[in-house]
Amino acid sequence: MANFTAADVKALREQTGAGMMDVKKALTEADGDKDKALELIRLKGLRSLSKREDRVASAGLVAATVVDGTVGVMVEVNSETDFVAKNQKFIDFAQKVLDAAVASGAADLTSLLSAPSGEGTVQDLVNGMGAVIGEKIEVRRVVRVEGGHVDLYLHQTSPDLPAQVGVFVVTDAAGASIAHDVAMHIAAFQPAYLDRDHVPAEVLNKERATLEKLTLQEGKPEKIVPKIVEGRLNAYFKDNCLVDQDFARDPSKTVGQVLKEAGATVTDFVRVHVGA
User: Fold this and answer.
1) What predicted TM-score, i.e. pTM, was given to this entire model?
2) Where is it located (predicted)?
3) How many CB atoms lie within 10 A of CB 205?
């Protein structure tokens, strides 16, 4: 009989995040040698990496930081299950990915995965974590923003999980006092664009054409269709443009009005939701 205890199984599970049966099998094969069992778990995971390529990693977390108040860096790191996402080893792994993103200045996924981390690259780090955990693990995206003032808001959609939503708001210096409230608003109301000027022409043209068709189908006189369409476009802007939305903390004002009262300007924002 292998020379290990329930405490050894528990300790190795906590160290690796692997399943109980996998840990027991590894300890049995290693005759209780914890270091050898750890290596067996890792090798088994590496051999099965290719088998996990078609599996979906839609759980996970966002990790982010602001450097010197002017640069924001955020990464989305995914696992297959929430059980892994809240594992401390996975959270520590995500922090290493974020640290590599900050240190390397990577602004795209290809650059981040090839960035140095420890004795290898971030991709090596991902492969190693997948091997130990036994799930498909991936870094889905990296976000980098810069500006006069960068504010960060991280939101937990469930109290027992790490942050699932991350928001950066970039403002001028005058916006520092209101930026965090705006970031919380963005987390909740999910605007797609900063303002009307930022709605891509092809998106706006498609929306206008749809509204024109809908209005004509309703039997409205053709001569008043343009006016009705413009009114409905205003409703679209109110739903999708940050400055046109009713402010979460005071719905009697729009976000644009609140910013104007503060003498502030939002120059950019990014909202990341795990799996979205």
Assistant:
1) 0.79
2) Cytoplasm
3) 11
